Amino acid sequence: MISRELTDWTLTATDGPVPEELAGVSVPARVPGTSHTALLERDLIPDPYLGTNETAVAWMRRTGWRWATVLDEPAAAPDERVDLLFEGIDTVASLSLGGTALGSTANMHRSYRFDVRSLVGAPADLVVDLRPAVVVAEAEAERIGTRPMAYDQPFNMVRKMACSFGWDWGPDLQTAGLWKPVRVQRWRVARLARVTPLATVADDGTGRVDVRVEIETSGLAEAGPLTVDVAVGDRGASTGVPAGWSGGTLEVAVDAGEVDLWWPAGHGDQPLHPIEVTLYEGDGTDRSAPLDTWSGRVAFRTVEVVTDRDEHGTSFVFRVNGKRVFARGANWIPDDHLLTRITRERLEQRVDQARGAHLNLLRVWGGGIYESDDFYDVCDEKGVMVWQDVLLACAAYPEEEPHRTELEAELRENAARLAPHPSLVLWNGNNENIWGHEDWGWKERLGDLTWGEHYYYELFPRVLAEVDPTRPYSDGSPYSPGFTPQERHPNDPDHGTHHQWDVWNRIDWAHYRDDVPRFASEFGFQGPATWATLRRAVLPDSADVPEGFKDSEVFLLHQKAIDGNGKLDRGLAPHLDVPDDFVDWHWATQLNQARAVRYAVEHYRSWWPRTAGAIVWQLNDCWPVTSWAAVDGDGRRKPLWYALRHAFADRLVTVQPRDGGLAAALVNDTDEPWTGRVEAARTTLGGEVLATSRAEVTVEPRSVTLVPLAGDVAAVADSSREVLTVSFGGERGLHRWAESKDLALDPAPLRTAVTPDGDGYRVEVTATSLALGVTLLPDRLDPAAQVDDQVVDLPAGATAVFHVTGTGLDPEALTARPVLRTENDLVRAG
Ligand code: BMA
Fold it and tell me: Would you place residue 774 in the very low, low, confident or very high pLDDT band (cuts 50, 70, 90)?
């Protein structure tokens, strides 16, 4: 096969709103690309991520676009096929070549192939006309009946990334374009239409790769025999293909002794084996000129989700290679709303950040995309498990045609594409649609209209059982396994997966402890982006932040949640007074985000194995915005990221309420026992010891030991002036009996020393009195500066050493407001 990428195109607005200077203008445009990236690259639109530019480019949503190039291909030989392969079209398109219609498309989540052999031989215009997806979706809603959804525009009526139309963390841009490569492919006789390797490990430890191969024959030559070779590492299989064969399975077996298992990070290594599939003409005597090849990687591991009934309800536990694994996870959204800008390098950086926060799972959420092969490759290499939603989120979806056929086609294609990846551990039917149908007033509004249940309970499990039977499937997130939504509420914390959104929307984060969910697949709290990101995207150029900035048009355009700032303030108020000053408010709300989520994670982990996973909403952002993300839209880590790193550490000491009293929960998520002495001390904030207790403890591998803290050590005398510190094996947990705003915290509890050190500075910080949330924000001095830790709580007398990378930073500025911050400096002097 000869394959050539078509990268040079032109873009022209064809109808709908167009500013005068663009009307009739054809702009050179790179593919992969979209309307937005093409115009942005030529400075023809302002950067929609900056200031209020999102509004300035809103016209683009209802514009029709033409992508065009000249296809200059030699004529096809009599037995030669010439195909055009569009790997991804965003979204509603009609295509033509030299004036002849090729077909139309309406699904960005699948690829399209057109046989153009009869149309090549002379230069011809290849034209892709894109209609605005929202206009098509509105017409479709009109045609088949509008369905409930979480946002204003009918994203449920067209197979375009749901968050294209805006989300509570995302802009509403609605790109249109060729978002994946376009290729001309010339081939003879036959090609590999689809290769799906399914690696399994049997109970006796032997491994097997079933390589499913689908072949398309050209239909132009006399059908003769073919040969398919498969090589997995240095093992192989070969099969002769009789004429007329369109597909089958080749098996490669691996002896038990040679199966090296793939493990999630923290549980073992990630051995990956190259796999190559080659198609030859004839009976295999001549292997010099393959017709087609396919290559990838596979690995050996098993994965199940254990959904057993027990005394607490119904479990939801990942079991990898027979071993139960606590999922330390984060939800993943597309890393850039302008998808074609997401590079492998950027994905690698983001997955490294996930690993850096001690995560072992990412959930690819249903309002985004099936991610690129790069994403799953990186996760394979780094041992990050991937939970993949089918792309349906927060809406009732029509089951009428063509929707049903489109969904089935996209799932078949993507399930086969992702099947080689050991990181993929779960297919999940949708995000919140079963819950929404049950709870959000959809039933009444739907009447007799379809809403998607056929997909979740019938179509998806059937297609997946056929295409990839090696992965577990869950109906939706949240759901209660084994029950109908009528029997058990889909979001019942005692059964299966649970989304905790009452915190954030309605109630204080202290209420995270009200439930012990079996698996927390969404929970989270908002906080603003880092200062340097705000500075680049939303803050005015002046050094000072203008009065009322928080309520300004630009700041609110980058805060998409309903009453987002109100929820931030109400979420802060029980813990700290809400600052008027924007600089303090920014720090306080970032800190509160970190506190809230850390509180939840420590609670969930303390309940292992009853709670078997915590997937925080959300790891990343797709542009600069106030959101639930731990890493902001410019890739900078927010205080939440550091809080996750503390809360998800392999070994954790946390003080939790149990049986009416307090207990130290010692969480050991490693394969080694954790032995030592638990030392608890009740002290004044200044460090005077009031009571102590000790106990010798061994925490078994992958388990939690609860050490009751009783008697004097837990008997607080003055809740505003005392703190409980628990140390074990080098880790520390703090408990206070009062909210920060009611603690008599010293407003200036730190002694600091800065010394130059390697590529930056060593900042040593010693607490003279209890210092909470000690954080350096070096991006205040230099947008490139970074620090290795944040949100550190220090009892009186304790020292922390921070490493700041960066050059030319003023040492004095490094240890002063607004760079060095604490929770103390948000509390009025006690
Ligand atoms: C859940 C998610 C997203 C949303 C998040 C925050 O519903 O599934 O739809 O962004 O909450 O509101």
Answer: very high
Q: Which atom of ligand 1 is nearest to the CA of 561?
A: 12
Residue whose CA lies nearest to ligand 1 atom number 12 = 168
Report the candidate in 397, 329, 322, 396 with the shortest Cα–Cα distance to residue 362: 329
Task: Domain 750-826: state its class.
Answer: mainly beta
Q: Give the containing element (helix H, strand E) for 593.
A: helix 582-606
Residue ranges around ligand 1 (CB below 6 Å): 167-169, 367, 393-394, 431-432, 522, 617, 628
| CA 641/CA 105 separation, integer angstroms | 40
CA of 492 to the centre of ligand 1 (A): 18
- Residue 124 sits at φ, ψ, to 5 deg, of -140, 145
Is 189-298's fold the same as 750-826's? yes
Q: Which CATH architecture has domain 189-298?
A: Sandwich (2.60)
Question: For residue 181, how far is its CA from the centre of ligand 1 (angstroms)?
Answer: 31
DSSP state of 237: E
List, in sequence order, every beta strand (DSSP E) within 494-588. 497-500, 519-523
Q: What is the pLDDT of residues 345-358, one digit of tens each?
A: 999 999 999 999 99
CATH fit for domain 2-185, picks 2.60.120.260, 3.30.470.20, 3.30.70.1120, 2.40.30.20: 2.60.120.260
The string of pLDDT tens digits covering residues 696-741 is: 999 999 999 999 999 999 999 999 999 999 999 999 999 999 999 9
Which residues lie closer than 8 Å to 242 by C-beta, 6 or more apart?
A: 225
Instruction: Give Cα separations from 416 to 259, 262, 410, 441, 483 (angstroms).
Output: 23, 20, 10, 36, 29
Question: CA–CA distance from 306 to each of 198, 303, 497, 544, 597 (Å)?
Answer: 21, 10, 12, 55, 26
Please say whether the beta carbons of 10 and 62 come within 8 A.
Answer: no
Q: Rounded to whole angstroms, how far apart are CA atoms 680 and 666?
A: 13
Has this prediction a pTM greater than 0.90?
yes
Handedness of CA 467, 469, 471, 477 (dihedral sign): positive
Structurally, at CATH architecture level, domain 311-647 sits in Alpha-Beta Barrel (3.20)
- Per domain, the residue ranges of the chain are 2-185, 189-298, 311-647, 651-738, 750-826
Centre of ligand 1 to C-alpha 97, Å, is 42
Within 8 A by CB and 6+ apart from 35, the residues are 11, 60, 63, 65, 130, 175, 176, 177
Band (830; pLDDT cuts 50, 70, 90): very low
Assigned CATH class of 651-738: mainly beta
Going by DSSP bridges, is the β-strand pair 473-474/424-428 parallel, antiparallel, or unpaired? Answer: parallel
CA 469 to centroid of ligand 1, rounded, Å: 29
- pLDDT bin (cut points 50, 70, 90) of residue 282 is very high
Residue 405 has pLDDT above 70, yes or no: yes
